[in-house]
């Protein structure tokens, strides 16, 4: 009966450790997902920056199409959208909440091209160069872009990237400590068993082996549980995460899964190795402290 209770207590401790490690690995997986997609998130924000090319009046359709094709074929333009005078008037009327053309008696707006750039070309220096390039096209009358907004976005992206790295380093250290403490407590509960095995002449490798095997088991199974929850979460909320996380890219998901498995294995194995070695060095009298 006593043996049964001891076995049950031992099993419960390993199950609770498995749950704890799984929860920590879920957090590590989420952190890995954010870090892997940090560049994409930065690009997503930067690529919202664009130019408005105001076209000259009375341009022929063929001239507009030629300009649009030329821009789309360039290395720095991600997309272009042609906005004719009527569409521009409707959009402005929606923003203002009233039809200004009825008040004025005519449409004062010009047709334009809304140009979105690749993230690499959205720095201040690149935008100044591109502004001059756009003005050289014969179809373009004026070029507009929000200079202040560009500055704010670029500054905030740099700040957020730096903060993300610092926070990630701190969280990784904390998560490692949580798993390490969980394993240490688990082994601490068996310190007398370890000492007894030493007293009957068992070698250190013989004593380590079952503990390391269990650590691999708990790390791998904890990672498996964490990955199931992470993958389910990614594909359940993929609409909400669209643009922030490329959930259509299978490589990213597989990379996160691999990272969680590697972290689960390494942290559990290393924590067990250091903890078991500590108790192997202790004398019997020291086990009570």
Structural commentary:
There is one protein chain. The chain is an alpha+beta fold and 289 residues long. The chain has two domains: 2-42 and 164-288, no CATH class; 50-145, Alpha-Beta Plaits (2-Layer Sandwich). 70% of the residues lie in helices and 8% in strands. The chain has helices at residues 2-36, 38-46, 61-72, 85-96, 100-104, 124-135, 147-188, 191-199, 204-236, 250-281, and strands at residues 50-55, 77-83, 112-117, 140-144. A four-stranded antiparallel sheet has the order 2-3-1-4. The longest helix has 42 residues, at 147-188. The mean pLDDT is 77.
Layout of helices and strands:
Layout: H1 2-36, H2 38-46, E1 50-55, H3 61-72, E2 77-83, H4 85-96, H5 100-104, E3 112-117, H6 124-135, E4 140-144, H7 147-188, H8 191-199, H9 204-236, H10 250-281
Antiparallel strand pairs: 1-3, 1-4, 2-3
Helix pairs in contact: 1-7, 1-9, 1-10, 2-7, 7-10, 9-10
């Amino acid at each position: 009966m006593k043996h049964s209770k001891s076995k049950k207590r031992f099993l419960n401790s390993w199950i609770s450790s498995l749950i704890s490690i799984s929860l920590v690995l879920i957090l590590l997986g989420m952190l890995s997902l954010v870090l892997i997609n940090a560049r994409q998130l930065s690009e997503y924000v930067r690529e919202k920056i664009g130019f408005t090319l105001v076209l000259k009046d009375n341009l022929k359709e063929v001239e507009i199409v030629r300009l649009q094709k030329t821009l789309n074929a360039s290395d720095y333009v991600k997309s272009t959208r042609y906005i004719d005078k009527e569409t521009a008037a409707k959009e402005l009327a929606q923003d203002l909440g009233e039809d200004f053309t009825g008040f004025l008696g005519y449409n004062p707006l010009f047709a334009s091209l809304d140009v979105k750039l690749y993230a690499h070309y959205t720095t201040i220096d690149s935008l100044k160069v591109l502004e001059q390039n756009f003005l050289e096209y014969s179809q373009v009358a004026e070029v507009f872009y929000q200079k202040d907004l560009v500055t704010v976005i670029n500054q905030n992206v740099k700040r957020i990237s730096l903060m993300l790295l610092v926070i990630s380093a701190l969280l990784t250290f904390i998560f490692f400590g949580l798993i390490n403490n969980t394993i240490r407590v688990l082994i601490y509960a068996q310190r007398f068993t370890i000492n007894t095995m030493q007293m009957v002449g068992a070698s250190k490798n013989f004593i380590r082996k079952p503990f390391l095997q269990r650590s691999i088991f708990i790390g791998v199974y904890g990672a498996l549980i964490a990955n199931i929850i992470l993958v389910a979460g990614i594909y359940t909320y993929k609409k909400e995460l669209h643009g922030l996380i490329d959930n259509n890219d299978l490589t990213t998901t597989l990379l996160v899964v691999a990272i969680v498995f590697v972290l689960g294995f390494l942290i559990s194995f290393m924590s067990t190795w250091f903890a078991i070695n500590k108790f192997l060095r202790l004398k019997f009298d020291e086990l009570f402290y």
